[in-house]
Design brief:
The complex is a heterotrimer of chains A (460), B (352) and C (263). Chain A is an alpha+beta fold. Chain A has 16 helices and 19 strands. Helix content of chain A is 33%, strand content 26%. By secondary structure, chain C is α/β, with parallel strands linked by helices. In chain C, a hairpin with a 6-residue loop joins strand 3 and strand 4. The relative contact order of chain C is 0.17. The chains are: A alpha+beta (460), B alpha/beta (352), C alpha/beta (263). Chains in contact: A-C, B-C. Strand 18 of chain B pairs parallel with strand 15 of chain C. The structure holds flavin-adenine dinucleotide (2 copies) and adenosine monophosphate.
Chain lengths: 460, 352, 263
């Protein structure tokens, strides 16, 4: 038997033999670079970019520090929208957990919960989102990239961008340079490479939050019943304002249902953590889990996974998302949106990755030179919801991290609700009166609250 | 000898009888792990009315053959040669397999020490049979005379029973420190035989050029272990543990990172890549209790965990939990033990 | 003449990520990634150190495993190993140590000349340590197990074996097999450059037919042992009784009165 016949179908070796991809660089003939594009980071942004590029027969290298790719990635876990279908039309049959049919938003005080629980038959017509478990999901996406013909290297951490005459000409690792016509930086919120290469300032604590997450194992049926879901395929996703934490630490919580587990976590203000001299985020997720209205939802579950990750807050945090020979996509560019009601980033990551890939291909058609300036990336992205959301919700962090959202409003609401619902033999008061009364009794200046309320209405 | 052999089973399994054990020697003495095979080997053999035959290999082995009989072998065979003085894989495995061909034992037990595992692997291939490694339970099905070899797997969480139905001998290696050494009885009756052998030159190509003995700490037979982890924070933390250990006659154990960092010698390491221990009390000081560590100590009769972190994994398998800074409680514990020994009362409780 | 070194490696679930369930005491390996068996990383490093020192050394790394074990081979090549062979066939499934040794020995025989074979002392998932010496027996060659270092001097292979009671230095002629202790050296990291080059170079995949064995000799069929049953080890129920600082006298009383501690 010929060796080539028995080589495993998906293997790199087979792909080379069958010339399924372009490892030998026939696509970038004429250029001196080893690869057309090097994509750093195999999260949703990088993997989407790599799939798009490889499908267009570009010679692409996708590098991730984890092995398998993405195995250290963290997300609460709802991938909103349908952007991924542009590069992976079958993604809904891929490693998704449950389709979100019920959405919640709650304010939690020490003793109470004030919630909106939104369920709609119309969620069937609109695309809401799927819960995903990132370790599975990211590995699946990276495999897609490999199957499309990208060279995928995992378990290696890229040190920095390789620069020559002010242009990015590739990446550096272990003292060696690998060259490419373009680099797409999709390294996530840490942005070590962008910072070390001098194309991004170190983000301030205000722009960074810490996300922590646990996966809690529960039987499929228990989850479906406990959250009142219509089937095992349907899921629940809720955000919480945690207005009861020790030391007044500001944090948002989330709870999502997967097939056979729950994802529970919190996004905590870095500034608050530092102020409280806490390096220990564990305590916060414990407080959340022990809350009287959360604990019953977790009952009987067993913690299977614990992880922590940075979340960029406050939208676009880089001066420029492109330059000579490079583009920045996903969290690395600051493309996240969190307003206390939803926390999104994966969808922005996917779209920005695809647009970066398109922008490279666009330039390529016209004959690219190594180190070309990718201003078209910004132009192309401006036409998508990514840039539109970033513009519309600029400054939203001032609201989401405001004392009003985290403490004042929940406290007022709690007092008001108690007033409305408790039967103390007195005649019922008008709602507005109750609100005004409980507001008047607070130490917080009315002005601060008014400003926050105004901002909230404008920006959310 | 070069070439491949296949795994055809012998057709005459019924002809195989008796339990053979390999009594490992170390520096001219019978080593403990080998002696541990005697009680379990005898139990298995006698259950089916067969004999326990001990094998001793070496040069000056007369005394050792006698000793093996006194410990409880029904029969002891000594293989004597200058070339067998030190353990070497090929001469040992060639000679032992010749004995197997001759004696046709139903079962062969070897201690799962480094040389024992080395030997067992080669014998199994030479005899075209299977071997169950690192067993902690051994029994026999009296009807079929099938060895029921059980070994912990999946991080000591499950016990797998492994059988070798069609091939003979049925082999197992036994984990040191699990089976007890029987009482030695100088009056015990047994049959013994010493055979002189010569080893072919071609089997003696490996030379032992030097041997540096080291005194090793045997934690497997310790009754009390005081063990330290990264929570000690500094190498000198082990001084405090030694003080406590000295007070209660304990040995000192350690988690792997403390060994890797050079805080303490490697032979103190407990766990998957260290020693498996089962003392009466295991006092874990500043050990989080990762799976690899737990594997090596969870069979301890009593476990005490001193840890500042109430949610340390080790706490979930502890009989006693002291959720405090070890630098605070260990000195207190030492004082309390001293007081108890001297019959003194705690100052506050002492009558005025 | 080229010194031919073979390193046998195995892909195992990362035991650092395998967690024990504190309630059921079962092992949760679902989350665990597949990695090169730790001792095998040390075996690769031991081979590379010989290559660093001697001239004209060629190293091949081999594994018997499923197709996805390719990543372990690529990883090994990216550290400086020259070639890699994956021996993969459905017929190999369910092998115990005997047919595993046979399959690897047949693979090595098919490769042609070899001088030194390296293996790990044992694997973290089956931890028998039988495969390495088993291969040596199938090939009829000398071996040194549980070694902390290996070197070549005057055409001899030397190795330090770490035994329970001391360190034994042995000297042999090649061909021979060496098993390497976990943590006996610090394995080098693969670089991006080397990973790219290894992927470009690719690995060889051999099947049962390539190594000339019969299906009934390998895998489950060729295994003399069978797993009859598995049971959870009955765990002693542990109470987790709490004592505070300042209560050490009470604690000692408790241990002594229950006969746990004898003073
Ligand atoms: C707790 C939490 C909950 C969240 N919940 C949601 C949610 O429900 N829905 C949602 O849409 N978003 C959510 N997000 C945000 C979402 O996770 C991110 O926006 C998204 O993962 C960004 O994708 P990315 O590809 O840009 O970066 P990442 O997913 O962070 O991927 C970056 C990749 O780069 C690799 N990498 C980094 N540095 C290097 C290097 N030097 N060399 C090689 N590789 C490198 C990393 O290993 C990683 O695989 C959440 C985030 C957190 C932390
Ligand atoms: C293949 C392999 C094999 C391994 N084999 C072994 C093995 O044989 N043995 C082994 O032990 N490990 C082994 N390990 C390593 C194992 O996974 C863990 O890393 C190790 O057991 C953790 O050791 P630790 O508890 O000392 O450290 P840590 O996990 O860092 O724990 C330190 C603990 O000390 C507590 N602490 C800190 N300060 C104090 C204080 N002042 N007072 C009280 N408590 C305090 C902390 O709360 C923490 O719980 C192996 C790993 C691998 C991959
Ligand atoms: N399937 C395999 N392929 C290659 N090498 C193996 C395989 N199984 C075991 N080995 C080698 O044998 C050593 C001991 O493994 P084990 O006998 O399973 O403890 C490992 O460290 C490897 O070097």
């Amino acid at each position: 038997m010929e060796i080539s016949e028995i080589i495993h179908e998906q293997s790199y070796t087979r792909q080379i033999i069958e010339n399924k991809n372009s490892y030998y660089g026939f696509y970038n003939a004429g250029s001196m670079s080893e690869f057309d594009v090097i994509v750093v980071g195999a999260g949703p942004a990088g993997a989407s970019a790599a799939i798009k590029l490889a499908s267009a027969k570009a010679n692409v290298l996708l590098v991730d520090r984890a092995d398998p790719p993405g195995s250290k990635n963290v997300s609460g876990g709802v991938l909103w929208g349908d952007s991924l279908s542009q590069v992976a039309p079958d993604w809904e049959k891929g490693p998704v957990e449950r389709y979100v049919e019920a959405k919640g938003v709650s304010f939690l005080t020490k003793d109470s919960r004030i919630s909106i629980d939104f369920r709609s038959k119309k969620f069937g017509e609109y695309k809401s989102g799927y819960t995903v478990l990132r370790t599975k999901f990211d590995a699946w996406l990276a495999k897609k990239a490999k199957d499309s013909g990208a060279m995928v290297v995992s378990g290696v951490t890229v040190d920095r961008l390789s620069m020559k005459d002010g242009k990015v000409i590739g990446v550096e690792q272990g003292g060696e340079t690998i060259t490419s016509d373009a680099v797409i930086l999709a390294e996530g919120a840490n942005s070590r490479i962008a910072i070390d290469s001098g194309i991004k300032k170190k983000p301030s604590d205000r722009n960074i939050a810490l996300g922590i997450k646990e996966v809690i194992k529960l039987p499929e049926k228990t989850i479906t019943d406990r959250f009142g879901l219509s089937s095992a395929k349907m899921g629940f996703a809720s955000e919480y304002v945690l207005g009861f934490l020790e030391g007044g630490v500001r944090a948002g919580g989330f709870l999502y249902t997967n097939k056979e587990s729950l994802s529970i976590g919190a996004v905590i203000s870095m500034g608050d953590l530092r102020k409280n001299n806490q390096t220990y985020s564990f305590n916060i997720i414990e407080q959340f889990k022990e809350h009287p209205f959360i604990a019953p939802l977790l009952e009987g579950g067993r913690v299977e996974e614990y992880s922590a990750h940075l979340v960029p807050e406050g939208g676009l945090t880089v001066d420029s998302i492109y330059g000579k020979g490079y583009m920045i996509a996903g969290d690395a560019a600051g493309f996240t949106f969190s307003n206390g009601l939803v926390l999104q980033g994966m969808n922005y990551a996917v779209v920005s990755g695809i647009v970066a890939a398109d922008s490279f291909l666009q330039r390529k058609e016209k004959g690219i030179e190594a180190g070309a300036n990718f201003s078209n990336y910004m132009d192309n992205l401006s036409g998508t919801f990514v840039m539109k959301d970033m513009k519309n919700f600029k400054g939203v962090d001032a609201v989401t991290w405001s004392k009003s959202i985290h403490q004042t409003i929940p406290a007022i609401a709690e007092e008001a609700m108690l007033n409305i619902f408790s039967e103390n033999g007195e005649p019922k008061k008008h709602m507005l009166k109750i609100l005004l009364k409980s507001m008047a009794g607070r130490k917080e200046s009315k002005k601060e609250l008014a400003v926050d309320l105004y901002r909230m209405m404008r920006r959310l | 000898m070069v070439g491949l052999v296949n795994a055809e089973p012998p057709e005459n399994a019924g002809e195989y009888k008796n339990v053979l054990i390999f009594l490992e020697t170390r520096q001219g003495k019978l080593a403990k792990p080998g002696l541990e095979m005697i009680s379990v080997g005898a139990a298995i053999a006698h259950k089916v009315n067969e004999e326990l035959i001990g094998i001793v290999m070496g040069n000056k082995i007369e005394g050792l053959v006698q000793e093996a009989g006194e410990y409880g072998c029904d029969k002891v065979i000594g293989l004597k040669s200058k070339d067998l003085e030190d353990f070497r894989t090929i001469p040992y495995s060639v000679n032992l397999s010749e004995l197997i061909t001759e004696l046709k034992p139903n079962i062969l037990l070897i201690p799962a020490t480094r040389n024992g595992r080395d030997l067992a692997s080669r014998i199994a291939v030479r005899s075209k049979t299977g071997v169950t490694a690192d067993c902690t339970e051994l029994d026999i099905d009296p009807a079929e005379r099938i060895l029921q070899a059980r070994r912990p797997t999946y991080g000591e969480s499950t016990l797998a029973e492994i059988l070798c139905k069609r091939h003979r001998p049925q082999m197992a290696t036994a984990r040191p420190g699990i089976f007890s050494v029987p009482e030695r009885d100088p009056k015990r009756k047994f049959v013994s035989e010493i055979r002189k052998t010569t080893i072919k030159k071609e089997f003696l190509k490996k030379e032992i050029v030097s041997f540096k003995p080291k005194s090793t700490l045997d934690l497997t037979s310790a009754k009390i272990i005081v063990s330290g982890g990264l929570g000690l924070g500094k190498p000198s933390g082990f001084k405090l543990l030694e003080e406590l250990a000295g007070e209660i006659g304990a040995s000192v154990g350690a988690s792997r990172p403390t060994v890797d960092m050079g805080w303490i010698e490697r032979d103190h390491q407990v766990g998957q890549t260290g020693q498996s221990v089962r003392p009466d009390i295991y006092i874990a000081c500043g050990i989080s209790g990762k799976a690899q560590h737990i594997m090596g100590m969870r069979l301890s009769k009593n476990i005490v965990s001193i840890n500042t972190d109430a949610s340390a994994e080790l706490n979930s398998i502890s009989d006693y939990i002291i959720n405090e800074d070890l630098y605070k409680v260990i000195p207190e514990l030492i004082d309390a033990i001293k007081r108890r020994k001297s019959g003194e009362k705690k100052p506050a409780e002492a009558p005025a | 003449m080229t010194l031919e070194i073979v390193v046998m490696i195995k892909q195992v679930p990362d035991s650092q990520e395998v967690v024990i369930d504190p309630v059921t005491f079962t092992l949760n390996r679902s989350a665990a990634r597949n990695v090169i068996n730790p001792a095998d990383e040390n075996a690769i490093e031991a081979a590379l150190r010989i290559k660093d020192k001697e001239k004209d050394v060629h190293i091949t790394v081999i594994t018997m495993g499923p197709p996805f074990a390719e990543t372990a081979l690529i990883d090994a090549m990216a550290r400086g190993v020259d070639d890699a062979i994956l021996v993969s066939d459905r017929a190999f499934a369910g092998a115990d140590t005997y047919p595993t040794g046979l399959t690897l020995a047949a693979t090595i025989t098919r490769m042609g000349k070899f001088d030194i074979i390296f293996a790990g002392e044992e694997s973290t998932d089956s931890s028998t340590g039988h495969v390495g010496p088993g291969v040596a027996e199938f090939l009829g060659i000398e071996q040194a197990s549980y070694t902390s270092s290996t070197w070549i001097e005057d055409e001899f292979v030397y190795a330090d074996r770490e035994l329970e009671d001391g360190i034994e230095t042995v000297r042999m002629k090649s061909p021979c097999l060496i098993t390497v202790l976990t943590n006996s050296n610090v394995p080098r990291n693969p670089t991006l450059r080397m990973k790219i080059d290894s992927i470009k170079k690719g690995i060889k995949t051999w099947s049962l037919a390539d190594i000339g064995l019969k299906p009934e000799w390998v895998g489950l069929k060729g295994s003399p042992t069978i797993v009859k049953s598995m049971r959870t080890i009955n765990e002693k129920k542990r109470e987790g009784k709490k004592f505070k600082a300042g209560e050490m006298d009470k604690f000692v009383d408790e241990l002594v009165s229950k006969g746990i501690l004898k003073l």
